[in-house]
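Q: Here's a chain of 194 amino acids. Please give me its 3D structure as tokens.
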Amino acid sequence: MSSNDSLTRRIVRRETHASRTSGSMIAAFLGILFCLYVLLEATLQALGQDAWLTDPAALGSWLSRLPAETDSAILGLAGLLILLAGLAFFLQAVLPGRRPRYALPNPRAAVVVDAEVLASSLARRARLTAGVTAEQVLVTVGRNRVDVRIRPTSGVPVNGDTVREAVQEELQLTGLEPQPEVRVQVSTLGVIGQ
């Protein structure tokens, strides 16, 4: 395996997966705000000034007596908020965070295609095969499935199997691995005058 292959894989991964920087920046920002607040309170206490929000010693004393002196509903709500924030950070860290982009195999370069571009290409092929206009075809591309919805012109039948085969051919030309399943839905209501 050459360094070019490794570099290409890294580039493709970076383009097809969302980064985790937003969660990291939020956590860092909250940590910095907390540290600045503690520094402000400590500075005010060292200068003999009144506390801005609360005295650090009084806050520590209150935290040590917390379960006995506080309403359980407030503690439960605070715990729930902390749990939800922690769950949001945890899920952002462990979920794949895939972008709607696809890597196409190419021996010379990293080729990444947006799902909308792929859907447009498949819609064009479906439109030409069905003999309808662009407004009559809607294609959505998912990770495992391609949905093609066709509204035929009134009185002109559209063969869904023929359209599915044409769209599958177009997908095979892209070289996507694994190949998504193609589903074609031909509407029973036709479009007049297209």
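Q: Can you summarize the key feature?
A: The longest helix spans residues 21-46.
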